[in-house]
Specification:
The protein is of the alpha/beta class. It has one domain: FAD/NAD(P)-binding domain, CATH 3.50.50.60. The chain has twelve helices and 17 strands.
């Protein structure tokens, strides 16, 4: 190690959604904070509405090994690189997790329980939505657990949303405006959305609540120091079962020792376990925080797949947002004969001629002139919706260390993952249900795509038992009390709900605990 900057109160690893919130809260509390981000220093002025640009916001780090064939875990598309992380290109779907999902094992005999219930997290959900802003209509969501109403009205509906709502209503299935971290009116100086469907490429007008528009901006204003192109390699062992800080490499490959009283690991679902497992020492023979062998286990991924319908009427599918216009949710046991699990329909995504969830990709079997003809027709008459189906926790799905190394000689992570029968069966049920909706709406043709994966979670789960979990209910490692994990890796169950709102509520609650107990943490 050839550099050793001044010790700080807190070092935050990762400038995504959770890391940005932690950096903001700690800096606002008067702590000296350094944020280490492996990717580039994106600014709002960098964001460009194009498919090529959108791909630059995805994972830009070293490769991740996978053992499963086919590869079920879409790491590169689900992760981010640079300031904002994956939340820079996320679609802003922000539902609350179903209350039952917090007690999944106790109530349904599947998966794992959270270490606290929904009522514990409810005020933190309310606090985040009041600060960041969510559009929607809480009264129209029969599946929504109790909480404050949304601070903004729901997203605008276009023809695609109205057509698909007709299909759901004819089947007796309720829909509601999709709860989105997207402005529909001016909100705290941010303008309303212009509905051009470029969320995947970031949002340069601040309508979508990504970290550059919210917590990372707050962190900077409060004095946090951001260091881009800084790849954290491992935790540094300290005295008395504590960490002394982190070792990282800068863009030139210089290894740097950054000491801190508190380490916040917010490098997302795959990289957090990798850092812990690569942190070896006399007291960390199996990796930091891993005496139980739980680091990396219970990796989860929602099964995600689209259903399509071609209509004679214009669907205006170029208008709207990437998340969709409407939502329908089905919770545990609500569908007679359905496989176990919770799922959500995101209805009426804005579509481009090609690329992610575009017109062309809906028919990968077409080539040449038939594809050209299909795109011409589909660009005006195609409608789509996407089902996100829950995967319950399984210890066999995990992040471990692979055989390859990055350019700094640090072992790469390897993902071992499969969806299993429950998830694939639930997706097949949704594919059939979605086509029934399309037919009820008046589609002339319907078909379903294949299931992919989204919304990674687990790998560093929290729980009350140090023998079966990695962190406690506040995200602190059971074995290293001055290391806090942040992000959806803490979640023992997902409820089939998009995770960003929940991970921010958890981070808000945990950051509050850290600040109130700072003397103990920094002792």
């Amino acid at each position: 190690m050839s550099a050793r900057p001044e010790k700080v109160d807190a070092v935050v690893v990762g400038a995504g959604a959770a890391g940005s919130l932690y950096a903001a809260r700690l800096a606002q509390a008067g702590k000296s904070v350094v944020v280490l981000e492996a990717g580039p220093p994106w600014e709002m002025s960098d964001l460009v509405s194009s498919q090529i640009w959108a791909r630059r916001l995805k994972w830009g780090g070293p490769p991740v090994e996978q053992t499963s064939q086919p590869r079920t875990f879409g790491h590169n598309s689900n992760m981010g690189s640079g300031y904002g992380g994956a939340a820079l290109h996320h679609f802003g779907t922000w539902p609350r997790m179903p209350a039952d999902a917090f007690r999944l094992k106790s109530l349904h005999g599947r998966g794992l329980d959270w270490p606290f219930d929904y009522d514990e997290l409810r005020p933190w959900y309310d606090r985040i939505q009041a600060e960041v802003g969510i559009s929607g209509d809480a009264a129209a969501e029969p599946w929504r657990p109790p909480g404050a109403p949304y601070p903004m009205p729901g997203l605008q509906q276009f023809a695609q949303g109205r057509i698909l709502a007709r299909g759901f209503e004819r089947l007796g299935l309720p829909v509601a405006p999709l709860p989105a971290a997207i402005t529909t009116i001016e909100f705290k100086g941010r303008p309303p959305c212009q509905y051009d469907g470029w969320c995947d490429a970031g949002c340069p007008i601040h309508a979508l609540a990504n970290p550059l528009a919210t917590h990372l901006l707050q962190a900077r204003d409060a004095g946090a120091e951001l260091r881009p192109h800084s790849t954290v390699l491992a935790l540094l062992p300290g005295e008395h079962e504590r960490a002394a800080g982190v070792e990282y490499a800068d863009r030139q490959g210089t290894r740097i020792r950054q000491e801190a009283d508190l380490v916040v690991l917010a490098a997302a679902v795959v990289q957090n376990p990798r850092i812990l497992l690569n942190s070896r020492g006399p007291r960390w023979e199996a990796g930091a925080g891993n005496r139980s062998g739980m680091v990396g286990r219970y990796l989860m991924l929602d099964g995600a797949g689209a259903v399509y319908g071609m209509f004679s009427e214009s669907t205006e599918n170029h208008l709207g947002v990437s998340a969709g216009q409407l939502m329908h949710r089905a919770l545990y046991g609500e569908r007679e004969g359905a496989p176990f699990g919770s799922y959500q329909w995101q209805i009426g995504w804005a579509m481009k001629p090609n690329d992610i969830f575009g017109v062309a990709i809906s028919r990968p079997d077409l080539f040449g002139q038939p594809l050209h003809d299909f795109i011409r027709r589909g660009s005006r008459h195609l409608a789509n919706m996407v089902a996100m189906v829950e995967q319950t926790a399984d210890p066999a799905n995990l992040v471990e260390l692979g055989t390859g190394t990055d350019r700094f000689g640090t072992p790469l992570p390897r993902i071992v993952h499969s969806f299993g029968r429950d998830t694939t069966s639930l997706w097949q049920y949704c594919a059939e249900e979605g086509q029934r909706v399309m037919n009820a709406a008046g589609a002339k043709e319907t078909w379903a795509g294949r299931m992919n994966g989204g919304h990674p979670a687990g790998g560093t789960i929290m729980g009350n038992d140090p023998g079966t979990s990695v962190a406690d209910s506040n995200g602190r490692l059971h074995e290293i009390p001055n290391v806090v994990v942040a992000g959806s890796g803490l979640h023992p169950a997902t409820g089939g709900a998009s995770p960003t709102f929940t991970l921010l509520a958890v981070a808000e609650r945990s950051a509050d605990h850290v600040i109130r107990n700072w003397a103990e943490l920094s002792a």
